[in-house]
Amino acid sequence: MSAAFLFAPFFGIVAHAAVVHYPPASSTINNFTFSLDGSGSPGIFSSSATPDKLYGEYNWCNMPHVRDREYKTPSKDFVLQYVEVIQRHHKRTPYGSNTFFKEDVTWNCVGEGVLSGLKTSRGPGSDAADIQWQASTNPFNPWTTTVGPGFVGSTCQFPQITGEGLGDAITHGTDLRGVYAKRLGLGSRFDPSTSQIRVTNNVITSQVASGLVKGLFPQSTGIEVFVQAPAFDSLEPTYPCNKANSLKTTITTGNANWTNHLSASADLYAKLDSISGIATQDTGGWHVSFDHYYDNMSAKQCHAKTLPCNLNDTSSCVTQDMANTVYRLGNWEYSHQYRDAPESAQYSALKYGAWMLELKGHLQAKMNKSSKLKYVHNIGHDGSVSPLLGFLQISNMVWPGMGAEVVFELYEKSKQRDSEFFIRVLWGGQPMETSTPLGVLDMVPINNFFAYIDSMVGSGSELLAACNSN
Ligand SMILES: *[C@@H]1O[C@H](CO)[C@@H](O)[C@H](O)[C@H]1NC(C)=O
Ligand SMILES: *[C@@H]1O[C@H](CO)[C@@H](O)[C@H](O)[C@H]1NC(C)=O
Ligand SMILES: *[C@@H]1O[C@H](CO)[C@@H](O)[C@H](O)[C@H]1NC(C)=O
Ligand SMILES: *[C@@H]1O[C@H](CO)[C@@H](O)[C@H](O)[C@H]1NC(C)=O
Ligand SMILES: *[C@@H]1O[C@H](CO)[C@@H](O)[C@H](O)[C@H]1NC(C)=O
């Protein structure tokens, strides 16, 4: 049965959402027994480098992306017209929001300060100085030590992209340039009439843009990037959606598999808490998911730092086995929230529906020749890429690591008179396998793809109403 037939009720009439959840494939990632009691890490967690022969494997520190070496060029009948990329930012320091984990590992960012400041395109402000922020503490300020030891001895912003993460962003841009500059005719200077870059309100995405632009448009130094206000940003995303919030509760605290995974992990939590000094009944979110422990350990390991030890007893440290178990459980959590839970498709549809409507608009505008854009690049978060993967109902969900990338390629195939459009969606550089009737997203007729989007999200006003329901 063709995908067009399955979505046929949605053709020709006003778009109307009717979300169907297609469960993911079974793997070690969504096998809870294996996640808790199995062994090994679910990929590379120790370095940004993936050996060429393993490229495409999960690397939390630097996920695989489109590169010349692995890129599959379709037959000459298909002409590439438009590319839209969305990626997670590159590797960074941990977040500073919870400072109770007494750190014995410091972060050095001397000479790697975040850029701030202002320029104008007119008048003497056009070459105003670039200003970098250098994080500092002063022992005469008594609050310095109360906010948490994580800040003392470190010279980074928490969070900021590290020097190594910036290097990964440059390589990412260079690799994309290697594939797309010649195919789309992109110059070495950023041209806003054919290319756009978009970031979120979280400055770490602009830090990645600094590196990306250096690799992608090597002749450009200062450029403007797009950002939407937090009240409606679809990329991060931060637009309000009550229904998505209540579905998230249904999927987590209201779901037996979720609550069981936390209680079944009590022994592991007890070991980690005794090392970190975090209270079992903490209010900082360390015990509602493995997110905080995962992020804290993986950020260190990706930068070749040691796993943390107890500050009072430096012989009591997190072992690699404990860290690997946290990494397996973290991936299980993402698969559960975005793919395995029955409500995950509807949740993802609401969470990422606005960005998908924008993507559809870009593709349509290209097809009807009202847009000259050839290349659009979005820099977001794991909270962006995850609901996108949930929306597309990827077969094998993972926690999208640093730099994780999805690419939408629009192709035109000319017949004698009319032309037809097709879409290819690349995840980690290769066509994405989904559990939907669309199957592998490799040259899917564009109307089938649009019909799928419509079935998930409907029209913009329908999305607004769905978000405001309950
Ligand atoms: C899940 O993993 C466990 C432990 O490795 C294994 O015994 C079991 O067969 C797996 N279940 C499935 C459905 O693959
Ligand atoms: C990791 O620990 C540091 C230092 O206590 C803390 O600032 C940071 O918030 C932690 N990371 C996360 C993701 O909670
Ligand atoms: C829990 O997981 C099992 C198997 O993975 C699944 O059959 C069941 O429907 C899930 N239950 C809930 C409430 O998600
Ligand atoms: C270290 O010992 C002090 C005093 O007993 C205690 O308050 C603190 O929580 C301990 N820190 C850790 C990380 O266990
Ligand atoms: C082309 O498509 C865009 C996006 O859907 C739409 O806004 C625009 O009105 C269309 N223009 C024409 C000439 O059909």
From TrEMBL:
Lineage: Eukaryota, Fungi, Dikarya, Basidiomycota, Agaricomycotina
Keywords: Signal
Annotated family: Belongs to the histidine acid phosphatase family.
Protein name: Histidine phosphatase
Species name: Collybia nuda
Entry GO MF terms: phosphatase activity
A Pfam short name: His_Phos_2
Signal peptide: 1-17
PANTHER family referenced in this protein's UniProt entry, alphabetically: ACID PHOSPHATASE, PUTATIVE (AFU_ORTHOLOGUE AFUA_3G14570)-RELATED, ACID PHOSPHATASE-RELATED
Keyword Signal appears in the UniProt entry: yes
